[in-house]
């Protein structure tokens, strides 16, 4: 008579290839979303930087007066909306590991950053 531990399974454990395939496809999809969020974060940050620090010298084309007025109003609004919406984004960024699953923390933080940048830009347009 042999002693077996209660933790060892009596039946052979076989990992199905379909489960592994589904996991890899889910991971690829998650990585794609993370890259898309990261690229949109960089683009929004670059846009806000150009608006705030007067990117006229970096523009290869001449802009009309209406566009200059809109950019000046947007810069004024960004100076108010960026610090106004920062506390909420910072709290969500810190609390994100407690709210989501472990493998989705990075994606959630990128999403919070994109929402912060988009919200501050839209808020600046409304001011």
Topology:
Layout: H1 17-52, H2 65-99, H3 105-126
Helix pairs in contact: 1-3, 2-3
In terms of per-residue confidence, which ranges show pLDDT below 50 for 5 or more consecutive residues? none
Distance, first to last CA: 81 Å
Number of domains: 1
User: Could you report the average pLDDT, rounded to the nearest whole number?
Assistant: 84
Helix content: over 70%
User: Helix/strand-derived class?
Assistant: mainly alpha
Order of helices and strands: HHH
Cα radius of gyration in angstroms: 24 Å
Beta-sheet strand percentage?
under 5%
Global outline: elongated
Count the beta strands.
0
Main beta sheet: none
Helix tally equals 3
Characterization of the model:
It is a single chain. The chain is mostly helical and 127 residues long. The chain has one domain. Helices cover 73% and strands 0% of the residues. The protein is built from three helices and no strands. The protein is elongated and about 85 Å long.
